[in-house]
Amino acid sequence: MSIDITQLTIAKAHNALKKGEYTSVQLTEAYIVEIAKKNPDINAYLEVFSDAVEQAKVADTKIQEAIATKKDFPVLLGIPCGIKDNILIQGKIASAASKLLETYHATYDATVVAKLKEQGVVFLGRLNMDEFAMGGSTENSAYGPTKNPYDVTRVAGGSSGGSAAAIAMNGAVFTLGSDTGGSIRQPASFCGVVGLKPTYGAVSRYGVMAMGSSLDQIGPIAQTVSDCETIFNVIKGVDIHDGTTIKEESRTKIQDSRKMVIGVPRHFLKEGIDPAVMDAFNKSLDVFKSKGYEIREIELPHISYSLLVYYIIMPAEVSSNMARFDGVKYGMHVDGADGIQDYFETRRAGLGKEVIRRILLGTYVLSSGYHDAYYNRANAVRRMITADFEKAFGSVDIIATPTAPSPAFKIGEKNKDPISMYLEDVFTVTANITGMPALSIPCGFAQKEGKDLPIGLQLTATHGAEST
Ligand code: GLN
User: Does the pTM exceed 0.85?
Assistant: First the structure.
């Protein structure tokens, strides 16, 4: 039978499985066929698991049992998904799109994976990304860039480019990504799908390769906001293995969404933004207004320092987190003249340019004499930025900005100039700096060279207010 998997949502797939319209095996096979068709062009998947259909058979048995006994079954049972390649699935390769981990097999499940397994999802495969999640275009993958399904001459965004492109090419019902400075939201915006970066500590980071430990969060990418909510509700929660996880305490106070006040930091939206993005953004605000929402201009006095703060704190944490890849514990080993040379040779052979750049930058800002001037100063400004947002949330419920200053750019356009690539993160890094949740939703298209390129709208809420 043929299953329509274009823009298939969790709710629709769950209902169809419940009614017996198709089985999880049939659904999984439909995705595998679509991936085989699209992936050679898009390169979203680094691997499609050979046991995906086996997993679906197990799910089908449980579904049959539930149907026979007239019981409900978990909403994600039998639903095919893809996982970013820095999230561990026991027994599978987890390469973080690095040469260094090309043959590294995960020895345990990340907590988010364990939670999805409890539901009985089907893991279709591993998704491409910038090496160790460092980048904004997936061009830093050691396995080639992921291409944008809307225009294959353009990037899918990054670092979770594979996770976003997989949804846009109908290659999974949902995917997981990680977001340290925008890596779920920016690719979601480039690929016309929905991506949620949860509150820091809402979702366990156990079993996810650390990039910037005070910034990293795991979150869903899917076709709809309600799918993202479903997945968030499954993966969130306190985890004994991650001491930064926090007890859920929803801060949503809104009873009637039409009374909601949307704050817009106009002073931060003046330069460097593609006119098509600004146009789509303003039109979205008009839609909100016409539905009764109030739009209020707000001031975030220190927001212009966000990118600077991020590009000090993030590489500092990167340099420390990357120390574990020493050619002994994980993956690749290259022999040098002695023990210490093994370490240098392994990293030289195994790591890409951008990763090395960040290790150098981070080591520098943490070095004696510069630690106070850079790292400590950046942390002080981080607190000021967070205080600005907390103050703003005293009078508004949501803060709206574009997700990224431009639609998807051309492959090769920015990767020779790291600064121009870093500028892509101008609107997304604040949610990681403050630890607040932020969602990117599609809000229109830009016409470039005869192609329609998706644009994203970013909505940020205060800590714990995902449901807002
Ligand atoms: N583009 C940002 C960077 O290069 C964000 C990366 C991320 O969120 N993992 O650091």
Answer: yes
